[in-house]
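Exam revision sheet. Question 4 asks you to relate a sequence to its structure. Input first:
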Amino acid sequence: MSDLLPQELRILVAVAETGGFSAAAAALGLTQSAVSHSVRGSEAKLGTVLFGRGRSGASPTRAGERAVAHARRILRLYEVMGAEVRGAGRDTVEGVLRIAAFRSAALHLLPPALERLAARHPGIRPEVRVVREIGAGAAGEVAEGRADLGIATLGSPEGAPPGLLSGVLAEEAYRLVHPAGHPDPKALPLMDWDENCGSYTRSWWRSQDWIPRATVKAEDDAMVLTMVGRGLGMAIMPELSLREATEAVDITDLGPSGPVRQVGYVTTPEAASTLAVRALIRELRSTKG
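Answer key, structure tokens:
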């Protein structure tokens, strides 16, 4: 089996991201026949069908999804190689650093780390993308080659995608948040949002007979906090989300048996050895609270 060339990898990624051979050809400045020929050649080299073809375009098969993820990560290494080689002559670290993070981590964990990173390595250009921590979440962005490092929740039974490296940055407790001064907050309806339903808290939730079924769903944790402050319900939220709490709410500790989640970084083995990712991990580890 012959190795796939960089241009063949770029074509696989383009077809997956545009959803068709013609669209990929337009994006890459190639002809549609050249793209089709390249994909057929890649499939022959790998010995499997990578895309399903239909009237609506082309969509990756399961094998194709894996191939495209590897292609993104390999192409990213070419980019990093160029940046590190150029910086070596000046003893600097430079280039784009792609980061995926869920909302509260992007707001509270990343900024101090990025501030120190910029002071020490001004040539690094962070690109931060906020993703919802549902399904694969930030870890999935790393596995798919769309991010060099992700800030994600760790410790769920599903675990991170196989083959990734991770490290714990913080452990945060969940707390009860309710309208300030309310005489009986546990009597209020429960408010929740999709990212707050991690399986690592479920056994605790099931054992609490005072927690009602969520009757109000919001888009994100900021919306939940606002609605709680308006007196519309109570919520059980992790500490990172509660850093945005105002005087409109009171926060009650759930005790030593309350749920706790781990927040950490996730990266690939190849990205973990790059200078920019190593520098960011050092700054994240030195971030306190």
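Marking note for examiners. The chain has twelve helices and eleven strands.
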